[in-house]
């Protein structure tokens, strides 16, 4: 799955008109839902999207073709791969609006940048161009703007060429190991690997290698 935006931007982030309406409702004494209504919206709308990206067995590739701000940045960082065009900008808009890193952004930033790097990205509010984002590990590849989707599709072809079970088992394994100890990660691998030995794809690959070496 390739997630991208309509030029000239990847995502402008949250809808400011919706935010204004939410503030108005919170000031209305007749509104009984209070902040729980916003909680539901964030959890089931924004949160629903990132949970889908993270938990589906399909690979998600973010093709960041321009500015990625706020929740759009969260969507990109949740993807399995992040490719960027030379025009891409990562925009930490949260602090300027008086908001927190949202929808998994704090998790992604601290694991890639460390605490101080994540804090500087949030508090500084400086936009990162594609090259800076790649140097920090927030972006995997940078491509000329007109070649971005072709590069994303090439990754799709590579991934599609894998045996079907390989991606479906490896994606949740790697995501789980991000929070696991070394020993727990080793145990997860030990339980998962034997299943791969039973697949026709593995048997055919081994036989092909043996035939090529003989």
Task: Explain what the structure shows.
With 214 residues, this protein is an alpha/beta fold. It has two domains: 2-160, 2-enoyl-CoA Hydratase, Chain A, domain 1, CATH 3.90.226.10; 164-213. The chain is built from nine helices and seven strands. The protein has helices spanning 16-26, 35-55, 70-78, 105-124, 130-135, 148-160, 164-177, 182-197, 200-213, and strands at residues 2-4, 61-64, 67-69, 81-85, 89-91, 128-129, 141-143. The strands form two sheets. A four-stranded parallel β-sheet has the order 1-2-4-7, sandwiched between helices. Helix 2 runs parallel beside helix 3 (70-78) and helix 7 packs antiparallel against helix 8 (182-197). The relative contact order is 0.12. The model has no long low-confidence stretch (mean pLDDT 86).
Topology:
Elements: E1 2-4, H1 16-26, H2 35-55, E2 61-64, E3 67-69, H3 70-78, E4 81-85, E5 89-91, H4 105-124, E6 128-129, H5 130-135, E7 141-143, H6 148-160, H7 164-177, H8 182-197, H9 200-213
Parallel strand pairs: 1-2, 2-4, 3-5, 4-7
Antiparallel strand pairs: 5-6
Question: Regions with pLDDT < 50 over 5+ consecutive residues?
Answer: none
Q: What quaternary form is this?
A: single chain
Name the helix and strand elements from N-terminus to C-terminus, one letter apiece: EHHEEHEEHEHEHHHH
From the spread of the alpha carbons, the general shape counts as globular
Strand content: 5-15%
